[in-house]
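User: quick one
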Amino acid sequence: MLNVVKEQKGSALLVRLSGSVEESVNFDQLIGPPPPELIVSSKEIPRINSVGVKAWIKYFQSAQAKGTKLTFIECSTAIAEQINLISNFTCGGTVESIYVPFACTSCKSELVGLFKTADLKKLNLKLPELKCTKCGGKAVFDDIPEEYFGFLAR
Amino acid sequence: MSKRLLLISQRAEDKAFAAEVALEAGLDLLLAEDPIKGAELVDSQEPAVVFVDVTTEAQFVAFETALQEKVGLFSDKINLNAIHFLSSSDLTEVPFLIQSPIFGHFVFRNYGDVKVSGPHYGRIVKSSQAERAFDLTVLLKPGAKIQIVKLQSTSQKQEAVEAIKSYLEAAKFQTRMATSIANAVDELLMNAMFDAPIDEMGKTIYSQTPRSTVIALTGKHEVEMKVGFDGDYIAITAVDKFGSLDKVKLMKHIAKIYTDEEYKVKSSVAGAGLGLATVFHSGGSFYFVSESRTRTEVTVFFKRTDSYREFKDQFRFISTQFYF
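Assistant: Done. Structure below.
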């Protein structure tokens, strides 16, 4: 089930979504009528199914049609995957930052690092190594670069 | 048909893979380096199973032509449902295969360790040779534990999906892997609950019904989920009793991607039409078995790997078995 926390950030409404996005989601009820400026944080969305994707696009497309300026921040790996798979998933909005998956080469722990898309473009698919928060080992990017960062080339 | 597997390919990796498949499926391996020689062997040896390298459209046309000229596409000498296409291109790049009337099985040639992928696919081949291929136990290594869950209502889907995710995490799958597999289960169950049911005229009953609707899954609407893990592969099957799977529609959905073109929201149908393509893209393999108006079993397989990168790039296939 999806939950939302709303914050006013200057002229923009920031919505922090948490939970799975599936068939029970109703973005109209959850977020309400789209404001002129909407910032969406999906950091806490671990999973989205196909009907959830449809509901997402329907809501944000309608926001886009009403002239809402959309910005997506802190996109979880689940949301980043959809941004890559579906060309219009962000409905004309800007992706400001995404979580990037890493795995520790020693203890195999999973980690995520938050990167701004502008910085990712500069890195040209060469991600730095992170230090594992559990064992201190070397954590490396754990996905297919051409796929996970495919949206940057659009 | 003989107990032979004919491989038409010049590639060493295909030979290594086919040898492992044949061994597991209890078939003798025959080799042909080109489609003409392959068609001759179809004529003289009547192999039970044919693997053919169709990486390019030219190779596919050469195979189809040779087969047509030597034995005829609808000859008794070949079972069209036993032709397996081997390709280095992803499904979305080979529309000529999907649209072919002889499409039955697609193998994406990223075999990895053939000692693992070969026997795995060998079990699929063996199963497809049986009179009816409805049995998860033969698709996994011997000794794999199979659990069966009968769902009583559509409202139990999310609970089942979360239970699978927890089970996978306990079985040491990475969280992202567990999430991908849980998503696959979600899509399979949703299809079995809402897309499979048809009326007596063959019309879908719930095409416009919101997927959040609570429906009792009793009688003909019963949906079963089977879960098995053999140490390498996890297999999850969704079972419905309608046997309404349509191969053409199915392949159209799996091969559809929206990386370049826009996804258009259709209000006329409640489903999204995105689920199966996403599952295949995330590393899943499919085995579809359907007996018209009787039963459909859709099984998805994922290999447990050390990294998510390997998981997403794992050996994959789509296999279909239809009975009329």
